Amino acid sequence: MIRIAHLSSWPACAETKVSALLLRLSLIGLVILIQSCASAPQQRPKAWIDAEQYLQQGTQAYHDDEYAQAADSFSQALKTYLSIDHYPGMIDSYSNLIETTIAIGNYALAHQQLEKIEQLMSDNHDSNRQTRVRLLKVKLMFNQADYAQALTTLQPLLPEFNAQQQLQNRNSNSLNIISSMARLSVTTGRDDADLWLQRFQQALQPDQPASARYQALLLRLQAQRLQQQNKFADSASRLEQALSLYHQQAYRRGIAATLQQLADLETRQQHWELADHYLQRALQIHLWTLNQHESIQILEQLVGINQQLGNLQSAENFALQLSKLKSGDAAAR
After folding, report:
1. How many other C-beta atoms can be found within 10 angstroms of the C-beta atom of residue 234?
2. For the chain, how many structural domains are there in total?
3. 161 φ, ψ to 5°?
4. Alpha helices, DSSP H only, in the chain?
């Protein structure tokens, strides 16, 4: 039978050695503990974590076309960044909030927000963020058909191109700038419209994969240009390709905009029933995204088209819906 000796029965010298060993081990453990505490990563402030989470939630909601939720999250992020005087966070949150406001067609509020963000940025020279705010102004002006002012605002941002019309000094805002100029040129029928379409297309070269949304926008602009040239079949083909790209992403605003272009194309050819069909599909999307501005425009078109078709009851129904929307009684989802 194996027996375990008690410490009290050991010789005195052995007991002393054991005590010294235990003391040494304790000191080593204490040193390790102190070192681990000293080297542990410092916890980030809760305010930073909260603000970043609000931004992430808002960005996801925006991409899901949940604009009310996106606006709320961006507003919370802005308040949090303001509370800790964090300049980059303030500007990013406010820029995202303005983009959301434009997306739902609340242009009066967007103008007010742009004035406030410009005041915030008046003493700062962050060129990248200043460029983004300027592009938001261009988008707002374009949506309100203020093309002359949009062009004046955009021109200082235009990049350089080589002899082959290839973009020089590409940066994170380049595609946004080029696509904005292409939209302005095509929409206003400028002489350089085809040139900017070429530049936009080359900026979407295969070795630098771009968002499918930019690809779809290029197709829509090409379709618009073809319609101006009375090439209706080719224009319709481009729009169907764009619509397919948007459907793959379930991108509501892109789908609605393309349906409206298809309706405009059919209206140009006096195909009233097809125009009515496309506009009613677009209307459902704009009502879902709570875009009152676009919904009102479509309803006005539907009233006129149904009067043209002799569908007087439908025209009356659309007129009633239009009246309710203008009075602030927006249709619920």
Report:
1. 15
2. 2
3. -130, 150
4. 12-39, 46-63, 67-83, 87-103, 107-120, 127-143, 147-154, 174-188, 193-203, 212-228, 232-249, 252-268, 272-288, 292-309, 312-326
Nearest to 256 by CA among 238, 273, 279: 279
CATH code at position 80: 1.25.40.10
Nearest alpha carbon to residue 228 among 281, 180, 265: 265
Instruction: Say whether both 151 and 196 belong to one domain.
Output: yes
pLDDT digits (tens, 9 = 90+) for 293-314: 999 999 999 999 999 999 999 9
Q: What is the pLDDT of residues 69-103, one digit of tens each?
A: 999 999 999 999 999 999 999 999 999 999 999 99
Mean pLDDT calculated for residue range 178-199: 96
Is this structure's pTM higher than 0.85?
A: no
For residues 149 and 135, give the distance between their C-alpha atoms in angstroms, rounded to a whole number. Answer: 12
133 within some domain: no
Longest dimension (CA), the chain: 116
Nearest CA to 59 among 46, 74, 44?
Answer: 74
Domain that holds residue 117: 48-124
The token pair at 48 is: 């930073």
